[in-house]
Amino acid sequence: MKDKVMGRWSTYEPFFVQLGDKKVADIVITNHARLRWNDRISEQNSSLEEICAFLWEKLKNNKIIPYYRNEEDVYLVDEDLVVVAEFAHLENETDIAGNPLHKMIIVTFLGKMSETIELRDLKSYYSWLRHSRRMTLIKNSRKRR
After folding, report:
1. With contact defined as beta carbons under 8 Å apart, do 95 and 14 qualify?
2. Is 131 in a helix, a strand, or coil?
3. What domain of life does the native source organism fall in (predicted)?
4. Fewest CB within 10 angstroms: 27, 29, 35, 96, which?
């Protein structure tokens, strides 16, 4: 969903928002991310347009920041909502200097740190998840023998 609110009259440069070293000109929400939004974030079923409009506003107001300094796949929205995103080049779209523009693909919404305390340290959270799944698999394999 490109920004429909911005009216650009008599300019040749497409609209984009700088996020780190990326120039985001479009946001794409995966079906999985929409399901996670409805499960973990919003009580009512939100449409893709509502989710995209929310993210565009946060992006334009610099309310989306990287979760870790060096990694560019997990982001914080309003210092609370944890989002996993990927970036892809937009074909045939460049800024006025000829630099490529990107689309931000929202892979999933992990949840809010204010509600899920484990999200405050993702590395230990994922480590714990891997360990608990491995232990469950080990217990299940013992039962089958």
Report:
1. yes
2. helix
3. Bacteria
4. 96
